[in-house]
Amino acid sequence: MAKPKKSRNSAPDPSVAAQLPWRPSAPPLATFLLISFAALLLRALVSVGPYSGQGAAPKFGDYEAQRHWMELTLHLPSSDWYRNTSDNDLAYWGLDYPPLSAYQSRLHAHLINASLPDAVALRSSRGKLLMRWTVLSSDLMVFFPAALWFVWAYMKDGVGGSGERREGWTWLLAMVLLNPCLVLIDHGHFQYNCISLGLTLGAIAGILSRNELVAAALFSLAINHKQMSMYFAPAFFGHLIGKCLKRKYPIVEIMKLGFVVLGTFALVWWPYLHSYEAAMQVISRLAPFERGIYEDYVANFWCTTSVLIKWKRLYAIKSLKLMSLSATILAFLPSFIQQVKSPSNLGFLYSLLNSSFSFYLFSYQVHEKSILLPLLPASLLALHEPHLHGWFTYYALFSMYPLICRDQLLLQYIAVLGLFVLIYYSPGGNYGKGMKISSGTMAVLSLPLLCSILLHTMYLQIEPPKRYPFLFDALIMFICFSQFIILTLYTNYKQWMLDFHPRHVGSKKDL
Prior knowledge:
Elements: H1 14-17, H2 29-47, H3 61-75, H4 99-115, H5 133-157, H6 169-177, H7 180-190, H8 193-208, H9 212-225, H10 233-245, H11 250-269, H12 276-286, H13 301-305, H14 311-314, H15 317-341, H16 345-362, H17 372-380, H18 386-399, H19 401-406, H20 410-424, H21 439-461, H22 471-497
Family: Belongs to the ALG6/ALG8 glucosyltransferase family.
Pfam family, one: Alg6_Alg8
Transmembrane segments: 133-152, 168-185, 192-208, 257-273, 315-336, 348-367, 409-425, 437-458, 470-490
């Protein structure tokens, strides 16, 4: 007896359909545009406020530094950008970022010079305002598309290995684009972290979408825009080497990555490769060891422990460099080894967080703004670790509170923190789907939270003792450092536990 012909329109067998790997369609364009518009509007509103060093002669803060670099790169040859000359006084905001950052300054200078030439006039425009749109446009052209690519790659790959990742892409995108710390620093304080972080985010998306050569090129560009992007280097290196070692021709795979990295660096550094002296002039500007192992009150190991151990007084710079290097390597080594041994996409995201945390906590000359680097992978893990993301974002923002107050951005600080809390606890959010926290743990974690809330008010309303003028800054540093240590121990543990819970490892089919 002949089998009945199957109708073309008949429904698929549910048992078979359930076994098929889920592949999402591209996120709805209207939803993405709505979230992007909200993120752009927030940035524009923050930009209306004060900026770093406003009216504070003679150096006028980071806002003026960025404008001054545009002035230099526009009017001087590339050979003089990193060299002390009559037109380039390195004591007045000498360029101290890699060449790609200088090229970005030159591009913006050409755009501004076409309409407002006085704003970038050589040696006569110091302290004048720079158009905020240069940061807005950089954010829109680099960070925004990288965020969308990451979310698409994350959802498509099923990072975390569970069906619940099919939902929540809008919440994840909002968590990445509406990062309160990045918005305040780039569009309030005034910097271009959105470019280096956007290039890094694009490289991460490249890893998740199995475009390793593109990822290597993008991450090389990120390093060449801001040297702090090296915070992520152990994670990228460990993950890519681990993947290469598991493929059929590991040496060939490693050589391909090496050629891409070397080619990208050669392209960016081409004007300085004609002589050893020219290259070293640039490199010497990128590593200002003479400033000491820390500045201001940053919530890392060296600054926090300096209350008891006077590192700068007890040790020479050479010894401190060696101690800092050793501590940083020891801190990221477990995470690095895990990725070489068992590379996975979820493990890679944890490794990015652990690696950047290691540099923030132990490396030489860390600024409070450097917390933006570990905060990026924490945002990318928001669906998988919502409690960690929320907790870390709050303390990362709190660690920069003294800086925000100096910049007179308190209103913007309250606004972006309030907006983040509203979105984080929104009905469509993912905060309730993370690990369950016991009442005892909550009680312990509540103590520093209450202290931080109290310090917000005390910092503004109470005059510290004359003998300890930076008492409240130090207390903020202590609280944030304690939370950062707890978080990095937890995330290192979670990364290594992936080896014992294969179902949470994420996609390994691309190895």
